[in-house]
Design goal:
Length: 415
């Protein structure tokens, strides 16, 4: 699918979201340190957990609202919310106020706005892109996000650390341009078959009641629920890159190691491992998705889980720095293999009138995966590192079995 044939909505969003993602990652990596220094590590951790719980709930609400009121309207509401939150952010970080609590409120507002944005944004892709091209388009947006994850912190280290308020003001300016572009250039993509709601005044309680009623459709879809379960098992594995891996590398790698005439410590080995992961994901996701599209999706997911298991076992039995790096390469390709196909599957099985709800519910894979992931660090204290890596490898193989059964069942339903 050539860029020239893209719907105008996707073109505007690709450029606009590139900046939004970069701006978020310019700030986010440095906020944990800021909150730890100003509020204390324990308090900051608790407040950030509460913030993420709120964000998870609003993400579910965002899917319902996108199906009820339209994709474009929710995108405009979400970007407006981000702008308002960044304005509060600028005031909170100014020398006149400098309030960590207000900064946290502003950050929560940005996160909530982002969680409202995503279900509508993903559903919009499913609305305007033919099924055969969806995985490819989703992979392009995923690649853009990963580039932002790499570029954002680098820019943040230069601009946000030195000029926090000025950087936030620049973000507000560019997000306002995006808001205008979305309002003037894009169109509504909510399918006409979606349920139309009667006009009239509705209370918050009524909206919440309708939301829970809508999610009954998801709860009755056993195929989709098992897909989420498998996703949680693999997501918690991916999360170990930021949790168990750095601890493991620091303890296993000697104080210094020689690599190509360079002397590296554990932290530097971990940094190189992260760079390998980011490089592979950012540069191969689109090509890999396009190449794998010729094969059955069930096979792709099973192979991805198998690659995860092999990578984990190599990590757990590492006796050299090179083995760490080889394991990270395998691990990264496991992540890249299913890029785009996950959202494509959700778009395919979701009823047209509930697409955004399905996309928001699929986000539970990441939400619950982030909650479960720290348990592996605790487990490693009790049984040791290698047994913990074996447990994680077994979980990914269980996920492979679930994916096999899910896609086999889908094929049977289509006959």
């Amino acid at each position: 699918m050539r860029f020239s044939t893209w719907d105008i909505n996707l073109k505007v969003r690709l450029y606009g979201e590139a900046f939004v993602d970069v701006s978020f990652w310019m700030i986010f990596p440095f906020l944990t340190l800021y909150f730890s220094e100003t509020l204390g590590r324990a308090t900051a951790g608790l407040l950030l957990i509460i913030s993420q719980i709120i964000t998870a709930f609003t993400g579910l609400l965002g899917g319902f609202l996108a199906d009820k009121y339209g994709r474009k309207r929710m995108l405009l509401v979400a970007i407006s919310g981000e702008i308002a939150s960044f304005i509060l952010f600028a005031f909170a970080r100014s020398s006149l106020i400098d309030s960590p609590i207000l900064v946290l409120v502003a950050f929560t507002g940005v996160s909530i706005s982002g969680s409202l944005y995503q279900p509508a944004a993903q559903a919009m892709i499913a609305d305007v892109v033919p099924e055969k091209d969806r995985a490819y388009i989703f992979s392009i947006f995923f690649t853009m996000l990963n580039i932002a994850v790499v570029v954002g912190p680098l820019l943040g280290a230069v601009f946000f650390i030195t000029y926090p308020v000025q950087t936030i003001c620049a973000i507000i300016f560019f997000e306002t341009i995006l808001l205008i572009a979305l309002a003037k250039l894009t169109h509504e993509t909510l399918p006409h078959t979606a349920t139309k709601q009667p006009a009239g005044k509705q209370t918050i309680a009524t909206v919440l009641k309708e939301q829970f009623s809508s999610y009954k459709v998801v709860l009755r879809d056993k195929l989709f629920l098992w897909f989420i379960v498998a996703g949680i098992l693999t997501t918690q594995t991916i999360m170990q890159i930021d949790m168990l891996f750095p601890i493991y590398i620091k303890e296993v790698i000697p104080t210094t190691v020689n690599l190509l005439r360079l002397t590296l410590n554990g932290e530097q080995v971990f940094a190189i491992s992260l760079a390998i992961n980011g490089f592979i994901v950012a540069l191969t996701a689109i090509v890999m998705t396009k190449w794998l599209a010729r094969y059955k999706e069930g096979l792709i997911f099973v192979l991805s889980c198998t690659f995860y298991a092999v990578g984990l076992l190599l990590f757990g039995s590492s006796i050299s720095v090179w083995q760490f790096f080889i394991a990270m390469v395998i691990f990264s390709f496991a992540e890249v293999m299913v890029v785009g196909f996950q959202q494509s599957f959700v778009a395919r099985i979701a009823p047209v009138e509930n697409r955004a709800i399905y996309f928001s519910a699929s986000g539970l894979r990441n939400t619950i995966g982030r909650v479960v992931a720290p348990l592996m660090v605790t487990l490693s204290v009790g049984i040791g590192y290698f047994p913990t890596f074996i447990v994680m490898a077994l979980l990914t193989l269980i996920a492979a079995v679930i994916y096999y059964l899910v896609f086999k069942r889908e094929e049977q339903q289509q006959r």
